[in-house]
Amino acid sequence: MQSVEKKAPEKKAPSSTSGFQFRTPADIQDFAGDPSKQNMMNSLWSNNLDGFIQQGMLNNPWNTTNTPPTTNYYNPIDNNPPSQAANIQWLAFPGRLEYNFPNATQDQLYQMADTGSMPGQISNDPCGTGQNVAYFPYGPRGWQDEYCEWAVTRNAAGKITRIDFTCENPEYWNTLWMVDPNKVLELYRSILDKPQITLEDLSVPGIVNPVTNQPVYNPLNKWNSGPVSNASTGGAIHLTSTPNTIQTEIGLATTSGIQRFNPPPPPPTTNTMWPSAQFNNLICVGQFGQRYRNSDPNIGGTVNNFVTQGFMVTLADPPGLYIQMPNFSAYKTPDGTDPSTFWTIKRGSQTLTDQSGNTLPGNFILHAVYEVPASKGYTVSDITISNQPINWGSQVAYTFKMQIVASAYQGTTPQGYEPVGDTPPDQTFAQPLQLFYQDYFDTLYNINVPNPVNHPIPLLSNSTYVPSYINVGTTAASMVIVVGTCTAKANQPSTWPSVTFDDPNITAKVTAVKENITYAIPGNSQPSTNTAVYMTVTVGANATPGQHGVYVTNAGQQQKPAMPALFMVSPVTVQANIAWQNTGVVLTAANKATIKYASGLWTANPQDNGGQLYNAAGNPVFIAAKQGYTMPGQDEGALIGRVGNTVFLVGMSATVPSGLSGEIQLCINDDLNGLYGAGLTDNIGSVTVSISVS
What we know:
The protein is of the alpha+beta class. A hairpin with a 2-residue loop joins strand 15 and strand 16. The protein is globular and about 75 Å long. The model is unreliable at about 1-20 (pLDDT under 50).
């Protein structure tokens, strides 16, 4: 391997900035009326982005060569010096269509971009010879792979009445669901203007969140699946094509900063500059992104050039993918109305400032609708672009761009590397990929999702890297870690890997292995085959709350780095607006357990106590709970516990009644089923407790 160190002039030492928190995409505040939930959302989201950056900056130390940790990408959580912002833009229309079908007419390309109906197969290896396969990425909108997807509504005559465009990342919506599924429902209804949507429509049937006992979000639910929208199905809320994730975007930006020799040796060279005409070649040499997209080569090549010039780079806050305002100059309406008036920004904004108040470049649109009011008497299809009627949503997509915004400050140009390669067998190690609760993994893996090219793949392909949450004190969580280049064999325990963590208070026991697990790891355009390792995870009472990495070590091999931020350890936190919540602490009849209030405030009724929240003791003015409450006769708003069918008062502290077996569950003392009004839905806040078991 060759390397060369180049020095950039006028270096500026970075300055450490503490207390930085990433903002939500476009700084959107979905819980603006509920500060406690918005604070929770802000914290979870910033934590997610921090974890994604850690994963991207580590690169791949398990099974590839010339893939060092990144040196010129920085995490603002750790270090946020003054920097300059610059936007990177690309066309929203799928670029790979024209490359793969060069003989297609423009109208045929428009039709492909809207329907996913392809005239032939394509190579599964754009960087080599490969084999012909069905057009990928797979999924109900998989081919819309420029971080912009859309769904088209037509009337009975087949004319377009509405087009929904979205660039919202799935990780955000999964996090939003963690905070409040009912908010997700409310937003679906309002964004798509479909009041008929139900919470059941948005949920995966048959499983619940093992901590909250709430439904699990289905990212490919009937209202966010496919390119067609009508009164009974379809819509575009967030991105669904498997490479269209923000974790992918961050990984693309981190990995593309690694300098690659141009041309790759031999002969020896010190040049690491790649002109824009060679950005697709850089993707092959660096093995990041998908060749011939409008987005990936442009993002990767531009970031790479920043680093070649000696810059330290990151995605400007708030990181995200953003729709730009269309160019309406070629549009013409039947009555002369300005065609831009039919473009509605449903989420996001035209302008945005950074956290210092400086205007950021470009637009920050997350969801836009193109729709003509019924009062006009004509439809979108009666509008022309370049004298052609709008018959396809992709015609509109062709008139606007997408962007990310990078931020950079002067640093040192790193060394160069030869192309990414595969490690020899004796230097190939187990690669941790994703961590799930077992019910989630099994259920989503066994749901096959159809697509227009008749190549269904598991719903698990639409999972994300949002970490699983597990409570301190959890005694035996059934989980699955998906592992690449794993040598384990099913039903052969001697071949099973060890699974360890970056905290000795967290342990795992491998219970089974399944080989040949095939789905698209989020961020990848095609499915891959890996190994699923089943295990029970225990989190000791002294485990450190926060992000944790996971080591997977093949039998007989040395330990390699952990995959960072695959899961989160959380204090036992009880939400005021959710019924019985699991703690993860499972007792036997011989155990003695004590539950103590630690922190937090909540209320069972915002109208009581002068609108002030209170602690786990309950309402300061004692109000006896009615029948149908969590524990009738005890104070409203008090913390209540349950093991099996035995319900008991916890309040500020309690010892669990002796002789009970089962999981400890906790709940606020309130109207569980809404017998007297709003029930739990108007409750605010949460409390955190500690549980000791002997």
